[in-house]
Amino acid sequence: MAASPSPDVGQCLVAAVARLPADDGRHVAELLLGHALQRDRAWLFAHARDLVPADIQAEFDALLRRRIAGEPIAYLLGKRGFWTLDLQVTPATLIPRADTERLVELALERLPADQNVRVADLGTGSGAIALAIASERPLAEVIATDASTDALDVARLNAAANDLTRVHFRLGSWWEALAGERFDLVASNPPYIAEGDPHLQQGDLRHEPASALSSGVDGLDDIRAIIASAPRHLHGDGWLLLEHGHQQGAAVRQLLHAVGFVEVATEQDLEHRDRVTLGCWPG
Ligand SMILES: C[S@@+](CC[C@H](N)C(=O)[O-])C[C@H]1O[C@@H](n2cnc3c(N)ncnc32)[C@H](O)[C@@H]1O
């Protein structure tokens, strides 16, 4: 009996769309086949009638199975775009979110481009915040910390891949990694989901590191720890910017006021939800 002919690119995509969750559709099929072939979307379009070799079909099938089982697309591709950067991500790192770009924007508004400012990013994960700031402020010295050695390894690779040599990495729990140091601006997207929150069992969150997501019964344990010692690590007129859940703005403002921050305010994300609270340390 003659072997069945290899499917072409277009046929592979049609078959994949039928297997993938309805929300994924052709876009995800193209991303995964493009990844297996190491080609972009335009190439897939232009080569729709090219036959797909058996080894690529097998690789594509494995990616589809993992996606159907719920694995995040960013982990399957091993990368995610953030700000202007293409960042490597692994299951040791949170997948950077577009919401966090709001935190970067607010930080940049407070960082003059012509001064040698010192910036810290607490809980850097893939390096997203630190590297985005460093890419926009070449004179800034940026220190990125994390309690996870595996996450820091990824962040270091991302710094090297983007030629961001003024970013330095420190291992340790929150301020322990920065003993005796002061900064002009500290930004953090710490874990802030309440333990037991049902969202932790849904979507991408099921696959991301628990240590990057949840923080005590109300989700605020890490934010409390960061705010409590922030005054010892900020220069006068230095800024602390914290990303948080959309129902935590009032609580974070109250925590900042309680230790003496001024100009405390909560800013919203693109969907008009509270997302970042910031304050200035009067010194
Ligand atoms: C929500 S993720 C944010 C990652 C990255 N900044 C981003 O926005 O994509 C929180 C990060 O904090 C780190 N983390 C958790 N507990 C920590 C601690 N006690 N000290 C330092 N980093 C911690 C996690 O490993 C994780 O990388």
UniProtKB/TrEMBL annotation:
The keyword Methyltransferase applies. GO terms for molecular function: nucleic acid binding; peptide chain release factor N(5)-glutamine methyltransferase activity. S-adenosyl-L-methionine binds at G123, T124, G125, S126, G127, D146, W174, N189. It catalyses: L-glutaminyl-[peptide chain release factor] + S-adenosyl-L-methionine = N(5)-methyl-L-glutaminyl-[peptide chain release factor] + S-adenosyl-L-homocysteine + H(+). Keywords: Methyltransferase, S-adenosyl-L-methionine, Transferase. Pfam families: MTS, PrmC_N. Substrate binds at N189, P190, P191, Y192. Residues 20-78 form the Release factor glutamine methyltransferase N-terminal domain. Its EC number is 2.1.1.297. The keyword S-adenosyl-L-methionine applies. SUPFAM superfamilies: S-adenosyl-L-methionine-dependent methyltransferases. InterPro entries: DNA_methylase_N6_adenine_CS (IPR002052), HemK-like (IPR004556), N5-glutamine_MTase (IPR050320), PrmC_N (IPR040758), RF_methyltr_PrmC (IPR019874), SAM-dependent_MTases_sf (IPR029063), Small_mtfrase_dom (IPR007848). Residues 106-197 form the Methyltransferase small domain. Belongs to the protein N5-glutamine methyltransferase family. PrmC subfamily. Methylates the class 1 translation termination release factors RF1/PrfA and RF2/PrfB on the glutamine residue of the universally conserved GGQ motif. This is Release factor glutamine methyltransferase. It comes from Pseudoxanthomonas indica.
